[in-house]
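OP here, attaching both records as promised.
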Amino acid sequence: MSWLIRLLAVMRKEFRQLRRDRITFAMIVGIPIGQILLFGYAINFDVRNIEAAVANQANTHLSRDFIDRLQQSQVVRISNYVATPEQLEEQLRRGRISIGIHIPVDFDRRLQDPARAAAHLLVDGADPTILGIVNRLSSMPMTSDSAAQTRAIEIRPYYNPEGRTAVNVVPGLIGIILTLTMMLFTAVAIVREREQGNLELLINTPVSTAELMTGKLIPYILIGLLQLGLIVGIGKLLFDVPVRGSLVDLYLAAAAFIAANLALGLFVSTVAKTQFQAMQVTFFILLPTILLSGFVFPFDGMPRVAQWLGELLPNTHFIRLTRGIMLRDATLMELYPEVLALLLFAVIAMTAAMLRFSRRLD
């Protein structure tokens, strides 16, 4: 029985230690709850309400009836109307929509002509999932007139007409890799200084909190940009993933994204007490970064609440930037809302990290 008493004593000691370690205890509870909520609620394989715009040049009763039928399918959600198909292409390029619906002037006459497509769906084919869903619309009845129900809808995929998965995955993978490495680098930075006893030495130097934080960030920004070059180069050489836009724009966008992740990592390092805790928190943040950013599932297909949470993640905005610049030849000026979101996130995270760091020094 003595072995049982010793075993129980060790178990009691472990439970007490876990109870004192509040961050680890929060991870024990938070990780399963977070996974259940993410996989059970936020992740939705039935993609609906894909953002779309309409150029209804016919503007007849039949064309309006066709638009109503598209909306009733719940596959598309029409957000605006434009005048020409060229404007649809421009909105696709800027990433404002995923589908453009073009109804030609002679729509009614085309319905009676089996040799011609009655309407065109312009699709951002960078995501093969969206392209597959839109292809199902081609067999949808176009009007209540049974004689016209078999007329074709022409699908025009843009940016990735072959539907290659690598073209969609590699630009998104840049964000995942940079999030993991950049956050880990800085998440353990302050904790490591404390564990090695260097923090007291730094406190006694004339270095201010802002200088210390900024000095820790800049080397990792350079490392992150080097990683970006490696990923883009390998993506081009092995998977033929194009970079149609400006490399300068891509690097500027990556610099803002890296700064946001490094600042978040610094904030984590001011919360965690050990390097192990810092890594736990980093992986806890990485899970929603993968699932809610549009990397795995189409962002439009997620429930509204999940989209709101996704908008709070830097990777959501960076994926829009990389896919826009690399695949659609969009410029940084055209994608400026995403850049502003990254810069705002970096400023808030950096300010929070400096405030917490100063408080811990007091």
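Record two, same layout:
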Amino acid sequence: MSTKGLYGNFGGRYVAEILRKPVLELEEAFEGWKDDSDFKAEFDRYANEFIGRPTPLMYADNLSRQIGGAQIYVKMEGLAHTGAHKINNALGQALLARRMGKTRIIAETGAGQHGVATAAVCAKLGFDCTVYMGTVDIRRQRPNVFWMELFGARVVPVASGARTLKDAVNEALRDWSANFTDTHYLIGSALGPHPYPAMVKEYQSVIGRETALQMSERDLNVEALIACVGGGSNSIGFFAPFIESSEPRLIGVEAAGLGLETGAHAARMTGSGGREGIIQGYKSLFLTDNNGQVLSTHSISAGLDYPGIGPELAHLGKAGRIEFASATDTEALEAVKAFARYEGVIFALESAHAGAEAIKLATKLPKDKALIVNMSGRGDKDLFISAGALAGPSWKEFLAREAEGEAGDE
């Protein structure tokens, strides 16, 4: 165990002996290139030309008028290439891996956006790419599997455990243990052993830096920044430049699933909350039973359906700098409908949890205040879930007709 990368009582590096060498190699490379001007210039060039940065800050004027409270703004991270913030970190780590002489990249994915981003970056930079994904997530995020494979990635189904993100992480760790000589493990969330939480925060902080500049340019009176929290990559990057200040309020929104009282959720910081534990190489708060075994989680959004939370977020939550709230599946779907109806924007189901909190909070604030929601991804990937929930029988009838047509063509 190492004490490096500790955030209060959380974080650190707890890895098996076989992974000690690649983790130390990665830490040395990250620290060596983090402030290098050539590395930063290369990142910025790809960020502009490949990702499409900066992403806009959109004033949700119609929805704000409809609500009648604070003015809601949306950081349109879903307009980044591949449809989510995940591409920022994928680019940063891939550029670092190239400097380390790696030729192969592996990743795991839940909602699929990290997998798509990693596959796209690997195609652009010429890496061999393998993505581990639980079979439950493959079923509910099938469009993203198609895109990953089109980019040339090999998507490996994981059928162990709950067949979701945590099980995919375990398989990726096994792969890395056997192949670290030529392989970089590109973790997509701000968790895992040090230096991953720091590294993901560094590459995602571009979201917060752009937001700070856009706030200043518009002279906004911002009450709060609001982001969804699964592992926490979009929220820690969004909040990064503001953590050392006392303002604005920073609000992370977890998945309350079917309701905190039902036990079918993924809320580690709200409700009865998570317990301290050391899982998958880091210490944080996890949903576990009395014996320390990881509990099953539930969320309509695959990206929030994870039992742990990034260690810095857990620390900042305990310290009071970040407030935590939660939104149910139903509230997230209602937020998807509201932003689509009044703003012509389709939130990813993950981001819609933050959107739901913004709608609730705006009603309690005066009109001269502003709230900024990070739309960390757009909702194209959730079509089969959102349409199934919102369109009713007509969507299922459409799918049945399509399946019947496909069978008839064989």
